[in-house]
Amino acid sequence: MMSRILIVVFLGALAVAPMVMPPYFLTVLIPFFAYAIILFGLNLLFGYGGQLSFGHAMFVAVGAYAAATSYSVLGVASFELMLGVAVLAALCIGIPLALIASRFTGIFFGVLTLSFGMLFHSILFKFYNLTGGESGMRVPRPTLLGMELEAYNKIGFLTGPFYYYCLILLILLGYLMWRLVRSPYGLHLSASRDNPVKALYLGVRVRWVRTVAFVISAVYGAIGGVMLGVLTGLADPELSYWTHSGHLVFMTILGGFQQFLGPAVGALVMILVQDQLMAETEYWRFFVGLALAIIVIVLPGGILGGLRRIKFKQKETKAHEDATQRRPARSTA
Amino acid sequence: MRTQPSAALRDPLLEARNVSKRYGDFVALRDVSLSVNNGEVVSIVGPNGAGKTTLVNTLTGLFVPTTGEVRFLGEKLADNDIVKLSTQGLARAFQLVNIFPDLTVRETLSVAAGSYSGLRWRMMQNFRHNNAVQTIVEEIAQAFGLHTSLDVLSSALPHGKRKLLDVASALALHPKVLLLDEPTAGVSTADKYGIMETLLAAAKKMNVGAIMLVEHDMDLVSRYSTRIIAMQDGAKIADSPAAEFFQNEEVLSIVVGKASH
Question: Any CB–CB contact under 8 A between A178 and chain B?
Fold first, then answer.
């Protein structure tokens, strides 16, 4: 209950932010929306499916390049069209890769996805006639729902209509994911993570369940990629580089992959901290690395996992006969 | 061999025909033929290493036999399609406690109930709000005395209840044949009869056609089996009704001599 109130308050704060916060802060929040969507997808695969991908950033790049291509080929800069093309591209690339990758688990799955990502990066890098190589492709300012919104300048567009569009997409996609992980399908996915052999004997189609999770996470990644592309005006090959995939995993672990909202919290904290540190010191990567090391040692469940542990400790002293409290920090948010 | 004549009278639910399983030079199963018919509780006994668990794994599709074939409901087992088998009515529980540690009792039972109700790909409905699933969950939990622990995490259950949950989740698929690999292993002598009684009563309530029981404990075997199959070094050495079995001194000495400690 408490967490529901917090979510509503937080979303309310995000909704009024454009009226009270400086534009700079808003341009920091839009990447948060994009990363939260990307990580909802990644965590379906990782937190719920137990499959840790080290190449997930390639789907972010797929989204950004799809946005750029939809303009360069079709000559129309429409955000809905970009999203449509990105989803289609994510399906076209994600389905065959999912069919291959879901045969593997653990480190093999990790290395396989890593190599998919690197392969995609080198394609973007080398086929410069198609992809612009190192300099990437331009993503134009799109229309939203067919509206040109000429009254806004670039910053006004991003921090006004585009901000709200992305916020609504985040809420919508977050809600769909919330429904998904609680469905019979989501339960089968968690069962396949916990104990695949037992799951088979209970009628869980382990491989297909994993394949579908991979494809859904690819689509979420691509949608986030479109947002990032529009925000920076660029589809950059570095989006699919392995360090970016590592960044996604980092944010997920920072927030806590065992909880539904963990990755979103991780994305927010990471983006805000990184923004602060980058302004303060050029050695920000050092501090980010240090932070990760400390979190893994002190808070293995991430930020949300740690908060939940504190909450449970308080509860335990109040009423330790309550059996339900033994439920660990996992899916209830 | 009493399998062939009985097959003509009424089709066996589960049948192994000349099944062998080899790993390189090691022979785990030698030309084993057996059948399990409706209404039977068939126990498989034998010393350690006799191939009992390999037999169960082969009968349930986890291992593909090197030669021979396994038939379930008169149909040859497709290679490795465990999911198909389990939805057609062949269920098993495992020797070691086999649960989903991060799922609650309700969630665990809902996994199987979801498969049984054909809701595998239902993506937007909360499984807790699905009547078909929750009816099965309540019924099974009641039968196994797990209804008071529905929202407890599986890994937080006491050992005996975890064992029951393993079997309960298998029964949620409404199986025709249930294979139990040492259901009371690691359970205290005081608890084991309780577990067996609960288990058999629940199986009867769920209309399970036949039960196959792998068991070391001759006490349990004599009390609950209708037929007993003895194994040694991967081969079947006896297959007879329970009463006759205990008159066969030679087989008994092999099985009991090494198995009881």
Answer: no
Beta-carbon contacts of residue A32 (< 8 Å; ≥ 6 apart):
A267, A268, A271
Q: Phi and psi of B199, rounded to 5°? A: -65, -45
Q: What is the Cα–Cα distance from B79 to B61, expressed in whole angstroms?
A: 7
Neighbour tally for A2: CB within 10 Å: 7
Preferred mutation among B77, B111, B153 to probe A, highest tally of A CBs within 10 A = B111
Cβ atoms of B111 and A204 within 8 Å: the answer is: yes
Entry field: residues in chain A:
333
Residue from the list A179, A184, A326 with its beta carbon closest to the beta carbon of B156: A326
Strand bridging mode B14-23 / B90-93: unpaired
Q: What is the DSSP letter of B124?
A: S
Residue B12 Cα distances to A37, A326, B134, angstroms:
54, 45, 32
Q: SS3 for A70-113, per residue?
A: HHHHHCCCEHHHHHHHHHHHHHHHHHHHHHHHCCCCHHHHHHHH
Contact A204 B83 (CB under 8 A): yes
Residues 6+ apart with CB under 8 A from A16: none
Look at phi and psi of residue A2 and say left if phi exceeds 0, alpha if psi is from -120 to 50, else beta.
alpha
Contacts of A327 in chain B (CB under 8 A): 104, 151-153, 156
Read off the amino acid at residue B162.
Answer: R
Q: Are A216 and A22 in contact (CB under 8 A)?
A: no
- Residue A170 C-beta-side C-alpha neighbours within 13 Å: 27
Percent of chain A with pLDDT over 70: 94
ipTM of this complex: 0.87
- Nearest CA to B32 out of B76, B65, B74, B7 is that of B65
Chain A contact set for B60 (CB, 8 A)? 201
Query: Can you state the angle between helices B131-143 and B159-171, rounded to 10 degrees?
Result: 130
What is the three-class DSSP state of B181?
strand
- Contact between residue B161 and residue B173 where contact means Cβ atoms under 8 Å apart: no
Contact indicator for B87, B176 with CB cutoff of 8 Å: no
* Residue A207 zone, left/alpha/beta (φ > 0; ψ -120 to 50; rest): alpha
pLDDT (tens digit per residue) in B192-251: 888 899 999 999 999 999 999 998 888 889 899 999 999 999 999 989 898 888 888 888
Alpha helices in B120-206 (DSSP H): 131-143, 159-171, 189-205
DSSP state of B153: B
User: Averaged over A116-125, what is the pLDDT?
Assistant: 94
Block residue for tokens 């465990």: B82
pTM: 0.90
Cα gap B27→B23, rounded to integer Å: 6
Neighbours of A315 (CB within 10 A): 13
Q: Residue A303: what are its φ and ψ, rounded to 5°?
A: -65, -50
Residue B151's identity, in one-letter code, is: D
Q: For residues A35 and B204, what is the distance between their CA atoms, to the nearest angstrom?
A: 53
